[in-house]
Specification:
single chain; 947 residues; alpha+beta; Rossmann fold; ten-stranded mixed β-sheet; seven-stranded mixed β-sheet; 44 strands; 21% helix; 29% strand
């Protein structure tokens, strides 16, 4: 009673303070101003107080585990931080994700409470966000960029003397480039980590023929090759007739420091090659602290030249990576931006890259070089016989239609002449994109068998918009044998800006070029966005509409290498007009992913997936296309036919269903991006993609992560029906609001628990328990209309503990209150709040084992975990009497402290409390009749207390 009286007295004292701070010799109380935009002011005590130094929050462990099965990677990143200070501190979890990855799970465990994220439709999450803002809750939005990556970041208040665990999972289909699959893991812990371990487990149906682990990279280099140095401390263990491999990387503190220094030096060197533009934000020039680099695993598999078809549990995946075929002869048109913004280092790097690219042309290829700025020039090799034209250094405001020049064959003599022309490129003028690409398409459509007649000028027709003929459509869809001297048409388009001359409306440019580039001679347009100012969204749509893809060439020291590496990926087309067909009665309608491809390039792979119809015993596969011949320029029909038996058995390690879902969403998002259809239609690509993303819980541009209340059970996993009821039922009906955080690439909000009105009158408005922030997953589609608050304004509204003296702390909901024992806090809470419902951890007596939160299935009373791609189900009990093994505890190998131990039920092992779910997958064992055990050191069995 005396403690309660003391608390009430203190509460009354605080209630008497409105907009001023009251100080005593022992305490310093900070009152919140009525003006929410006013930063709280600290009043100094009449007698100086000495505040003990704060022990900084420490990152104690980082574990990354990737399961790769059939090129499909599932990666889990688990980090643990410890706050040893006597007051709460802010901790950050950062992760750079591959550009092609989808987040598929996120769990935060704070002071033993787990907050699991679910996927919600973005608009619904936005409504939650807006509602939170309207109630005065804080919000923040941070954006960041990294090469070929998306930045995910969460900040959170970690209570005094507690541990926080972050578990992020993401999935991706690995892309084959230049003959290998690349699996990249960004290691940006922000500090040295006492325990760091990266494990990559690969499982394939065919033998792994190549397996390389290059030195840790900055992420700024091009793909590593077999000539690059290998990682000396990465251990590779092969198994199962070379169809399986495990790569382990455990850098100690000394190695981490060495790698961080290398990363910092390389980043500084790269930044020094970038020109300084007025208005560049200072933070963009800061070096990243605590970055180890990019851990890369490269591998390839033995494959049949006829492709590989896998069937499992009603889904199939068809891989085709042709080899041992002569490359098709091509007509390559290089469309090069030489506008004024290319001046300096960029134009030098372009000239340097083109010298090598020209050398990579295959015998029998033809090529054209188009230079564009305000005007467009189709270069003739005869220019080398003329003196260098210095007039290009002057700006010409008047557009003059260019003269078309026949393409040149890739002979040694012609390549030498072309290099001279490239060496003379100068930058000046504006950016006339529409005219440049129109001229490129004109050249493609004219072919190679034509000449400029004397006294006649061939002028490009840049305004013609022909329509596709029936015969051309048929030729494109149904390739047949041909002995014509046809060339595979590709356009390599490089620009560092957006259209500023001629037609500047990007929508009209896209429409015009799509109408012009059609039929059998439709060219693949590969766009290279050079630097940060290029309109990436426009260039991506341009390439998607024209059978190509966009790449970002980063403005760094290795830009010339990036250009050459990109060209290498598309320099050798092996097949054209490729079409995969399957009997309609064997495949479920509407389930097939993209099955037509304009071209397949050497070193790449195409993938088709779908769902098998019911009661089908085999699938008839049929691939048709056009390939080259080894002894001349002619082409012939390419055809493969297979019969694949269908087994209805389920192989857990073959992730064909999720691979199908991932691939379908990716392609539907591409369709959405280039579609001109009415967005109100019922069956749009966007709505299909959203439905699948919600079902499989993928975070996409259409969906957001939502964190629900800590005591949510497995019944809330249904992403389309997340339980949004309040976490607690307060006596005065003004308890915590829905504990929800929209965590998407476009917005974040704070997890905020509001106090009852009676409590609020004493202590003022609420402060957030934690703040979550994340970057936009698509840099070109940031949703700035969502009122992104700055962190500073957020902090001014909700003062953090740094504004309070050590005599004050936060209550168990995160609100400022005088120091008192845990027992006192819960005693006070019990007089005000009703008893909360049991969480899954409570139900199974696992309160001190927070890592089990996202493994529990309350429907089956089991822990569900993935081990080497296979799901393992282990029983758990609600009884107070824990399961044991008859005959005593069995010996086991590696325990929680890496020593030999015994297999006991999880709650009997004290040292299993602070581990992660990923660690448990490595340490689990089976107790009695299938119960969840853990390999525990003998001295930690049946011990009471924390570690």
């Amino acid at each position: 009673m005396r403690r309660k009286s003391t608390l009430l007295c203190l509460a009354a004292l605080i209630a008497a303070v409105t907009s001023a701070a009251v100080s005593t010799q022992e305490t310093l109380v900070i009152a919140r101003s009525e003006d929410e935009n006013t930063t709280p002011t600290e009043l100094i005590s009449e007698e100086p107080t000495t505040e003990e130094p704060i022990v900084p929050i420490k990152l104690t462990e980082m574990r990354v585990h990737s399961e790769i099965a059939l090129r499909y990677a599932h990666t889990s990143v688990v980090t643990t931080v410890r706050n040893r200070a006597r007051r709460a501190q802010e901790a950050f979890f950062r992760m750079l994700l591959p550009e092609t990855a989808f987040i598929s799970g996120f769990v935060m465990t704070l002071d033993g409470k787990s907050y699991k994220a679910y996927v919600k439709e973005k608009e619904e999450a936005k409504q939650i966000y807006n509602e939170a803002v309207s109630q005065g809750f804080g919000a923040a939005h941070i954006s960041a960029k990294a090469r070929d990556s998306n930045h995910f970041m969460v900040s959170v208040n970690v209570e005094a003397n507690t541990t926080a665990v972050f578990n992020l999972t993401y999935e991706e289909l690995l892309v084959r480039r230049n003959g290998v699959y690349n699996h990249d893991i960004n290691l940006h812990p922000g500090a040295l980590v006492p325990k760091m371990k990266v494990t990559v487990h690969i499982r394939e149906t065919e033998k792994i023929t190549k397996l390389r682990v290059p030195e840790v990279r900055t992420g700024n280099e091009i793909d590593a090759t077999e000539q690059d140095a290998q990682n000396p401390i990465a251990l590779i263990d092969r198994a199962h007739d070379d169809r399986e491999a495990t790569i382990t990387f455990k850098p100690n503190l000394e190695e981490q420091k060495r790698l961080m220094e290398i990363y910092s030096a390389k980043s500084k060197e790269s930044a020094s090659n970038r020109p300084y533009y007025y208005g560049r934000r200072p933070e963009e020039e800061k070096k990243e602290e605590g970055t180890i680099g990019q851990f890369v695993v490269q591998y390839d598999v033995d494959r049949s030249k006829n492709g590989e078809v896998l069937v499992n549990d009603g889904y199939f995946v068809h891989f085709l990576a042709p080899s041992s075929l002569p490359p098709l002869k091509k007509h390559a048109v290089f469309v090069l931006d030489t506008s004024g913004s290319m001046m300096g280092r960029k134009i030098e790097q372009l000239r340097e890259a083109m010298q090598t690219i020209l050398d990579k042309l295959n015998p029998g290829d033809y090529f054209s070089i188009i230079e564009f700025n305000s005007n467009v020039v189709v270069h003739s090799l005869q220019e080398v016989l003329q003196p260098k034209n210095e007039s290009h250094t002057y700006y010409n405001y008047r557009y003059e239609p260019p003269t078309l020049v026949p393409p040149s064959e890739a002979t040694v003599e012609n390549i030498i002449k072309a290099k001279v022309i490239v060496s003379r490129l100068q930058s000046y003028g504006g950016t006339n994109i529409n005219s440049a690409l129109s001229v490129a398409i004109d050249l493609i459509r004219k072919g190679v068998n034509w000449e400029v007649k004397e006294n006649t000028t061939e002028v490009a027709a840049t305004t013609v918009s022909p329509t596709t003929t029936v015969s051309e459509e048929k030729a494109a869809d149904d390739p047949v044998d041909t002995d014509k001297n046809d060339l595979e048409p590709i356009i390599i388009f490089l620009t560092d800006g957006d259209p500023t001359e001629g037609e500047t409306n990007t929508a009209r440019i896209l429409t015009h070029l799509s109408e012009k580039n059609f039929g059998e001679k439709k060219a693949s347009i590969f766009s290279l966005a050079f630097g940060e100012d290029a309109d990436r969204s426009f260039l991506r749509k341009l390439s998607l509409k024209n059978e190509g893809f966009m790449r970002h060439i980063y403005e760094a020291a290795d830009a010339a290498l990036q250009l050459r590496d990109f060209y290498q990926q598309v320099s050798s087309p092996l097949l054209s007009n490729v079409k995969f067909t399957y009997p309609k009665d064997q495949i479920k309608e509407g389930s097939l992913t993209r099955s037509k491809f304009r071209a397949v390039y050497d070193g790449s792979e195409v993938v088709v997936a779908g769902r098998v119809a019911e009661d089908v015993s085999e699938i008839d596969t049929h691939i048709i296309g056009i390939c080259g011949v080894s002894d001349g320029p002619s082409r012939k029909k390419y055809e493969i036919m297979h019969k694949i038996p269908v087994s209805r058995g389920k192989n857990e390690y073959m992730p064909l269903e999720r691979l199908w879902a991932y691939l379908t969403i990716k392609q539907l998002l591409d369709e959405k991006e280039i579609s001109d259809a009415d967005i109100k239609a019922e069956n749009t690509p966007e709505k299909k993609a959203l439905q699948i993303a919600l079902k499989y819980e993928f975070v996409t541009p259409l969906t957001s992560l939502v964190v629900v209340k800590p005591n949510a059970t497995k019944s809330a996993v249904n992403a389309e029906s997340v339980d949004l009821k309040p976490s607690f039922d307060f006596a005065d009906n003004n308890g915590p609001q829905n504990s929800i955080i929209p965590l998407s690439g476009h917005f974040m909000s704070s997890l905020t628990l509001s106090r009852p009105a009676s409590y609020q009158s004493l202590y003022g408005p609420p402060a957030p328990s934690f703040q979550a922030v994340a970057d936009a997953f698509e840099e070109e589609d940031l949703d700035y209309g969502m009122a992104p608050f700055s962190l500073n304004s957020h902090r001014s509204v909700f003062p953090k503990l740094s504004h309070l003296s050590t005599s004050y702390s936060e209550d168990f909901f995160g609100y400022p209150m005088p120091q008192q024992s845990i027992a006192e806090r819960f005693e006070y809470a019990s007089t005000t709040f009703s008893t909360p419902p049991l969480s899954p951890l409570n139900q199974y007596n696992l309160d001190e084992y927070p890592w089990a939160q996202d493994l529990i299935n309350v429907t089956t009373d089991m822990l569900e975990l993935m081990v080497n791609g296979t799901q393992v189900n282990l029983k758990i009990t609600k009884a107070s009497l824990v399961p044991t093994t008859s005959g005593g505890d069995a010996q086991c190998g590696k325990s929680t402290d890496a020593s030999t131990g015994v297999c006991v039920y999880v709650t009997r092992c004290r040292s299993a409390k602070p581990i992660s779910s990923v660690q448990y997958a490595e340490l689990y064992c089976i107790v009695g009749d299938g119960y969840a055990g853990v390999c525990c050191p003998s001295g930690e069995v049946d011990k009471i207390g924390s570690n």
